[in-house]
Amino acid sequence: MEALLVNYVEKSLEQYMRRNAVFLCERLYAEFPSEVNLQLLARCYLNNNQPHSAYYILKGMQMAQSRYLFAIACLEMDLFCEAEAALLPVKDLCAEVPNGAAVQYLLGIIYRDTNRKNKSIEHFRKTLSIDPLFWAAYEQLCMLGEAEEAAVCFGDATVPCVQEHYLGNASSCLLIADTDHSSDSSQRFGLEYLSRSHLKQREGNNIRDICENNRGGPILTGAVRQSKNSCCSTSFLSTPSPVPTELSDVAPPPLIRNIHLRQSEDSLRPSTQARRKFACDNETAQIRGSLFFDSGLRRSARLAAGQRSLNTSQGSENKAKSLHASTKLSSETCSSTFCQGKLMETYEVAVSEFGATSSSLSSTTDVKSIQHEIENTKLSSFISDSATIKSGISDTMKLLRTLGEGYRYLCMFRCKEALNVYQKLSSKQYNTGWILSQVGKAYFELVDYLNADYAFSLARQISPYNLEEMDVYSSVLYHLKQDMKLKYLAQEMILVDRFAPQTWCAIGNCYSLQKDHESALKSFQRAVQLNSRFAYAHTLSGHEYVIMEDYGKGVECYQTSLHVDARHYNSWYGLGMIYLRQEKFEFAEHHFRQAYQINPLSSVIMYYLGTTLEALKRSEEALEMMEKAIVIDNKNPLPKYSKAKLLVTLGKLDEALEILEELKESTPRESCIYALMGAIYKRNKKYDKAMLHFGIALDLKPSIVDVAKIEAAIEKLIIPDEMEESL
After folding, report:
1. What's the half-sphere exposure (Cβ side, CA atoms, 13 Å) at 203?
2. Cβ–Cβ contacts within 10 Å for residue 673, how many?
3. Element (H, E) at 661
4. Where are the TPR repeats (predicted)?
5. Is pLDDT larger for residue 77 or for residue 362?
């Protein structure tokens, strides 16, 4: 009964029948109360978006896998201290949570969220040293600004490490298979199946979703199953980890979801299961060896397929789907046992022969001999294919090197270099939603909104269900004043997921573009409620408060954003703008410099830092900063105009006129340019040209304040006096 219930719980989890899994597992634990079954129940709760339930049933448990699942539940509930205590080794306990890549990554997330940056970086680097394919750890290091070059993290030196880990897992599966089908005891039949079906752990490369979003429970598989009397042993210390699943190729239907259950990225694979009939004990004993043999071979059978592309998550394994017990071993049952995974051609022949032969076998000895023969055939095929596996690992590392270098450049805001790196990708990789979204974000940082719009549009066509970076796309459309496109984007995002913070950022930008700042602010605050660690939502809230001239609350929003992400330069910039408006120039300089250190290639930040230095009467430093801004973005007219003003202040009138003549050609309808030229001609006593340019400036309808200044300058045109510094 226990084995049957366990099997159907696993089947329900694999088919995403979560409620059914919870019900059956509760019956299982009530009938057979053990910590191993409690782990399975916790997995069901976590899959069913009930981390609180998993938390309460696992609290105080001592087994390694129990503590790991307890830590996952704590992270979902933002109980960082308890999660840390569960993951760290405890000397008094026999079973310790293994120091695998997943555990190191989760510790890094905990330290990051509790503002212990150095320890966070240390654990993310440990994650990569254990598992070079753990992309999520490298992604976090890039966000923290502490990532090494991708050539180091994903270089050729890491290939042997990946190969050893990859081949080691396959060898373990073969050894487990060899050991398992020698068991004859009925008690061992049940417990060994549990142990084997839950020992295999999968290391996912997108655990970030588990830790940063509280909108759905992680889908976990592979809880370690130990016998009741087992203690700490190396066979049960394989790294447990949450399992991300691969998204389906088909876009999700446009449904409004009330509960967001995040799918994993690892297994939407079809499973074949034969009908099960349990017979008497002696008949069960006859087929016991076949069952164990099947569950042990699944992983290595898939590894033998050399042409299969490697997944970034190591150790993803296909578990045995069912217990087969019937009065006779039919060829249908045997063939369904080996239906999963790509096997080598020789192995497929052996399986077919085994299926045909086993139907006529009546003794356990004959079954075992054929099982050994198939295992040996598969092992030899696997060894002969090691060169292909190594080649596949090299290709995977090469791809990660390119992706990692591009992402690192983007996080360092070296956007042009990031774009050049992404151009090196194959068309298959480049024309994906994630890459095109990163390209769009790079153009956004370069203030090239048209190209950003084009890249994001392509990303939407390819992955209409993907909302990552769509908040940035909404800001692109906001800057382009594309009201209709922004409304359409917001509506599309609502249909995909109305509980995503990106959706509410898009809605807020839509309201802000319509000058409905109250509604915009409510939308941004709704995004914060959905995910308090979404830094951009805090920043956009601060922008709205600044527009409404509520500077106090604006400062609070920016500071909260920086508490979440200290490298979010937009918030440093926002604080600088508030202090600049309040004429607190020293504070403004400090915050602009912080933003400049994070993003040293932003001409906008350079311009406002130069403006602050000019206000502090540090003209030479201001002029140097304006020149840097012009070099970075020659199309930005603001630094050029400010440079001209500074040159006038320093008495370099001819140089200032050259810059203004150039600006007049590129931006002919800016009244301030003509007003400044008129003031320069006045100082050079060229009164006719001065009057001409003052007149043009008035014709371009400047602001009321500028009109008063220009008229005052015209009145004093004949009188030799000093140039008005304010022009």
Report:
1. 29
2. 26
3. helix 653-666
4. 101-134, 501-534, 569-602, 603-636, 671-704
5. 77
